[in-house]
Amino acid sequence: MRDISHKLAFAHDGAAARYSDVFDPNNGTVQARVALGDRALLDRAVEVAKAAQPAWAAVNPQRRARVMFAFKALVEKNMDELAHLLSSEHGKVIADAKGDIQRGLEVIEFCCGIPHVLKGEYTQGAGPGIDVYSMRQPIGIGAGITPFNFPAMIPLWMSGVAIATGNAFLLKPSERDPSVPVRLAELFLEAGLPEGILQVVQGDKEMVDAILDHPDIGAVSFVGSSDIAHYVYSRGVAAGKRVQAMGGAKNHGIVMPDADLDQVVNDLSGAAFGSAGERCMALPVVVPVGEKTALALREKLIPAIEALRVGVSTDAEAHYGPVVTAAHKQKIENWIQTGVDEGAELVIDGRGFTLQGHENGFFVGPTLFDHVTTDMQAYKEEIFGPVLQMVRADSFEEALALPSRHQYGNGVALFTRNGHAAREFAARVNVGMVGINVPIPVPVAYHTFGGWKRSAFGDTNQHGMEGVKFWTKVKTVTQRWPDGGASGDSAFVIPTMG
Which parts of the sequence belong to the Aldehyde dehydrogenase domain (predicted)? Predict the structure, then answer.
């Protein structure tokens, strides 16, 4: 059995009092254990980061970008190894694991252009002989607390921008699938990143609280459930930190009567069931507009869902694999029962799904509910599994109101051929990320990722220029070079630019 330690925390002394099991979700066995760090470990890691960060911040942006270029090449070279390691702990199929890594690499590509985005503003002649300019400087030490569902992408979203802008970064990955973040940190070192700039500190709530309370950590980025996101945001801000905390979601797909239903069904199959639904940008709610649309969509959805192949994560023909833990499998199946108890029509039941030879694996079959209503808890809350719920709407306005009024506001999609309807929807829907005939509207890396309402706490989004702003602080300089003339009493009044 492998031990996953804090070997990328350069202050680690090799000792650990507590461990957590890491499972192989394909067969339910324990394949490794991860050492859980404490406040003392974090204190030592912060001291190492404090010693290393000033020199890294002084490295010019071009040289920091070269590390990003070298790291990108190393990740691409080791893609197969990383994808298999990711799949073995998370359970997502290999192709999906590679997509996880690739979406993270796209942010690294953005970071390769850090010299350009760090350029400040300059005004010559703002006043008599006075110039004004601004510069972006690193926060100092940042931290990222990342979830199990994207063990490569989200750590790269956070660490790439934080490091490229000159910060030291402490990464606390999920203890459920902790190996890929460690391997990525090793590749950063191989790419030329100085020791101490990126450290991986494993842990659970004790480590999270230590990060939120530590006075030398200036900014914290988090992705997880909404309740924990609110906790992280509140505790971090109370400690004087800059915090971005991304929470849960209940993304809706609105299907207009003029939509291409074959394309909709194809998109829904991937968006609702891909990665076993363990995505904050999954599409677990479909809203057909009009009874005719609902009946036609249902008729096409049922055979498409029944044709989905659930398999082990190494099955190249599988559409998705197991969920991450036995506890999460049970949670999903409990939500399915809740939907039944609340009166929704269970059209396809994914409970009790097993694979021959993998009977102890954490598999959940694809599930479809129809006639779901907005007062049901199974609709209100995030299930985070391969469960699609159909909520019928009579009109465009009713459909628009569903995601707009929901407690979550991460993503939404509209399927239509009508440009006016699309324009109205995009402008009016109360959700942070919108797809028009795009089922999973995750923005490209040079734009920015972030939801609204209980899907995000804080004022700044992930990656893109929003990420650069989060991991830096602005310094503005007003300068004058005297020409030798007398200044009189002007020093005693507030300066103006007249």
Answer: 19-477
Distance CA 23, CA 178 (A): 11
Q: Looking at 35, 86, 228, 280, which residue is catalytic?
A: 280
Residue extents of the structural domains in the chain? 2-247+455-477, 252-436
pLDDT value at 7 more than 80: no
In one letter, which amino acid is 60? Answer: N
- Nearest 5°: the CA angle 256, 435, 322 is 100
Read off the pLDDT of residues 214-253 as tens digits, 9 standing for 90 and up: 999 999 999 999 999 999 999 999 999 999 999 999 999 9
How confident is the model over 128-171, as pLDDT tens digits? 889 999 999 999 999 999 999 999 999 999 999 999 999 999 99
Three-state secondary-structure class, residue 427: helix
Tell me the fold of 2-247+455-477. Aldehyde Dehydrogenase; Chain A, domain 1 (3.40.605)
Do residues 156 and 184 lie in contact, with contact meaning Cβ atoms separated by under 8 Å? yes
CA dist 376 and 378 (Å) reads: 5
Nearest to 465 by CA among 136, 180, 184: 136
Amino acid letter for position 217: I
Whether residue 371 contacts residue 344, with contact meaning beta carbons closer than 8 Å, is answered with yes
What is the distance between the alpha carbons of residues 340 and 102, in angstroms, rounded to a whole number? 38
Q: Span 20-32, mean pLDDT?
A: 96
Q: Which two tokens stand for residue 8?
A: 């990328």
Q: Please return the burial class of 42, using the count of CB atoms within 10 Å of its CB with bins 0-12, 13-18 and 19+.
A: buried
CB 154 within 8 Å of CB 162: no
Residue range 290-314, pLDDT digits in tens: 999 999 999 999 999 999 999 999 9
For residue 172, what pLDDT band results from cuts at 50, 70 and 90?
very high
Q: Are 308 and 366 in contact (CB under 8 A)?
A: yes
Mark whether 280 is an active-site residue. yes
Q: Please state, in angstroms and rounded to a whole number, the distance separating the CA atoms of residues 435 and 413.
A: 4
**Fold assignment, 252-436:** Aldehyde Dehydrogenase; Chain A, domain 2 (3.40.309)
Q: Would 2-247+455-477 and 252-436 be classified into the same CATH topology?
A: no
pLDDT tens digits along 392-415: 999 999 999 999 999 999 999 999
* pTM of the predicted model as reported, rounded to 2 decimal places: 0.94
Q: Name residues whose C-beta falls within 8 Å of residue 119's C-beta, 6 or more positions apart in sequence.
A: none
Cross-strand partners of 453: 408
Task: Give kind and range of the element (H or E) at residue 297.
Answer: helix 291-306
> Mapping DSSP to helix (H, G, I), strand (E, B) and coil, where does residue 136 land?
strand
Phi, psi angles (nearest 5°) of residue 137: -120, 150
Task: Tell me the C-alpha distance between 41 and 214, whole Å.
Answer: 12
